[in-house]
Amino acid sequence: MSENVLITDIFTKFQHSLDSDQETREVIRTICKEIDQISREAVTYLQIIHHKEEGIAQACQKTRGLFEKAREGYMKLKEAVPPTDYFKYHDHWRWVTQRYSFLISLVIWLEVGVLASHETVADILGISAVEEKEGFHLDIEDYLIGLLQLCSELSRLAVNAVTRGDYNRPLQISRFVMELNAGFRLLNLKNDHLRKRFDALKYDVKKIEEVVYDLSIRGMLPKTQEDKPEDEKSNEAA
User: Fold this and answer.
1) Over residues 118-124, mean pLDDT
2) At what angle do helices 140-163 and 201-217 cross, to 10 degrees?
3) CA 212 centroid distance within chain
4) 1-137 has which fold?
5) What residue spans define the domains of the chain?
6) Alpha carbon 165 to chain centroid, angstroms
7) Contact residues for 71 (Cβ-Cβ < 8 A; gap 6+)
């Protein structure tokens, strides 16, 4: 009889633990649903980059406003997730965080043409950039997958920029993506999701190269300062 009581007590504690875990997951799901909806709005705003140059600055500004709302959501996540259980619940916000890494990187590239660092993305989301065993942070893999998504979006932009007569943008994209590609090749990636996603980068690079090559053979590439004749450079300097 006493053994049965002991077993009952043990399983009662298990049920309490399961109930608590389920409650935490429900809170996390609700918050993630909110920040996911905000990210979808941001994606909608930024679709203008594929249609016209005018309005890109305004779209970036509106998107930054959405990042502020997302930051509030991540603050709620930090409070809801026990410091020791980050990886236990990580799958709930993994995909949306990858999307935010992509969106933030895209906005910064559109604004100033540079790579958004891991620390910058984490700071905009209001979370730590330090990889820790405990505590809420921006996982490096989520950040890197966001950059790979950025490359795919830029390869699409390279094509659409040409259709609207912008021949400078593909060159800018080509230089940036080539540098990113070189950076990724420095990583010793294992055979997992990140590796598979990286393997798709070669198709983005190929698409961009084809756009630049097509512009080149048609004589439509804008001349850089280095390409200009010496006398032309001298006249500009004068």
Assistant:
1) 96
2) 20
3) 25
4) Methane Monooxygenase Hydroxylase; Chain G, domain 1 (1.20.58)
5) 1-137, 139-223
6) 27
7) 124, 125, 126
How confident is the model over 51-72, as pLDDT tens digits? Answer: 888 889 999 999 999 999 999 9
Domain covering 139-223: architecture? Up-down Bundle (1.20)
Q: What is the C-alpha separation between 72 and 65, in angstroms, rounded?
A: 11
Predicted TM-score (pTM) of the model is: 0.87
Burial 198-208 (b: 16+ CB within 10 A, else e): beebeebbebb
Length of the chain measured in residues: 238
* Three-class DSSP labels, the chain: CHHHHHHHHHHHHHHHHHHHHHHHHHHHHHHHHHHHHHHHHHHHHHHHHHCCCCCHHHHHHHHHHHHHHHHHHHHHHHHHCCHHHHHHHHHHHHHHHHHHHHHHHHHHHHHHCCCCCHHHHHHHHCCECCCCCCCCECCHHHHHHHHHHHHHHHHHHHHHHHHCCCCHHHHHHHHHHHHHHHHHCCCCCCCCHHHHHHHCHHHHHHHHHHHHHHHHHCCCCCCCCCCCCHHHHHHHHC
